[in-house]
Amino acid sequence: MNRAPLTLSNTLRILFAGAASAALVACGGGDRPRNADLAASQVNTIGVNSYLWRASLETVSFAPLLQADSAGGVIVTDWYANPQNPGERVKVTVAILDQDLRADALRVAASRQVSQNGNWVDAPVQAATVQKLEDIILTKARDLRRKALAS
Question: Which has the least CB within 10 A, 25, 33, 89, 99?
């Protein structure tokens, strides 16, 4: 049996074909269970958990985006300086590691710089700051999932 190699392009075609098939089946209107539990891993059409993805984008929306890769689950902001504190700037990277809505499926990293004599110098980021960002994202993701199940 001669099979084509499994490339990213072929994988994406398979995923899109599966999503299209699922959408057509869902349009059938037959007996669908009421209040079906939508498992987090089944509610995405991207490479990672859709609730974590949307919550992450909302949480870092204060800063301009450098990169947002929904297939790889990586969001990187550009440097952001709060107008009330222009001598300090931060950059945030969010990595979503799984299709399930779980705390260990999320990693947040932050970089911070302060202005010294006109130059930006790296400064430490408190671990509590990164933990707070993770908590905000997880709370928003759970709220999004709860709202989706309620409707």
Answer: 33
Residue 13 is predicted with a pLDDT of 42
CA distances (Å), origin 55, targets 107, 141, 143: 13, 5, 9
**Secondary structure element (H or E) that encloses residue 74, with its range:** strand 74-77
3-class DSSP state for residue 77?
Answer: strand
Residue with tokens 């074909």, as numbered in its chain? 17
8 A C-beta contact, residue 137 and residue 108: yes
* Structure confidence by residue, pLDDT tens digits, 56-84: 999 999 999 999 999 999 999 999 999 99
Distance CA 106, CA 74 (A): 10
Rounded Cα–Cα distance for residues 34 and 105 (Å): 29
Q: Which residue has the tokens 């299709």?
A: 99
Q: Is the pTM of this model over 0.85?
A: no
Both tokens assigned to 125: 């980021």
Determine the Cα–Cα distance for residues 73 and 53; give it in Å rounded to an integer: 7
Listed in sequence order, the DSSP H helices in the chain are 8-26, 50-59, 127-150
